[in-house]
Design goal:
The chain contains 11 helices and 10 strands. The strands form 2 sheets. The chain has a 6-stranded mixed beta sheet with strand order 1-2-3-5-7-10. The chain has a 4-stranded mixed beta sheet with strand order 4-6-8-9. A hairpin with a 2-residue loop joins strand 1 and strand 2. Helix 1 runs parallel beside helix 3 and helix 9 runs antiparallel to helix 10.
Amino acid sequence: MNSVITEKKDRAAIVTINRPKALNALNRDTLEELLACFTALEEDREIAAIIITGAGDKAFVAGADISAMQDMDTLAGREFGQLGQRVMNSVETFSRPVIGAINGFALGGGCELALACDFRIASDSARFGQPEVNLGVIPGFGGSQRLPRLVGTGHAMELLVTGEIIDAEQACRIGLVNRVVSAAQLMDECLQVVEKISRKGPLAVRLCKEAVRGGMQMDIDRACRYESELFGICFASADQKEGMRAFLEKRPANF
């Protein structure tokens, strides 16, 4: 059985971590499948956005597979962390938006996968945390870096050093998720967001992501110069011509 399943619905690609008996924990095989999945989807130009979720109703991803990590030495631990970071980077740098549909536990590596998404919509049963300190380790898939960038140093440090698990409403209050919906509404809510994205200029959507992700690594002056370069590129596109023409003609754009 594949531990990562991909299906297309209209212009959304739904990527499901499919290890429900293990609460969708990330072992090496699952990480490698995820990496291959995102590499393949990068070539599919019909996709407007990706939705990542977990199989079953208990977990998005409950963490990395502890049974697989228990006997690792320093070298093996570093290599496993580097594999996980390659996966998270492939999610973060995917050319189109990636939405986390968080449907249960998102702990450890699962929270790190959620953090790599462009934004997150959670069910009211979702739970978030970086509880690695309970196991005598720190996050290894980028959590110690992405979490403070998203929610601020204070909230991030509290979660990291206490290992506390928070509910969806608290995650929403600190900015870890965009909004909370019922479990029954979660996928429909995410699909509606993809449908909105699919009606926008595809180049502009991609360059918005590039501007944000790239600019966050720069000081404000360099980031604004970077934005102006990407803004200029838009004017070489058919999307810009159609979008502005449609606006002036008071009709929907046909991208």
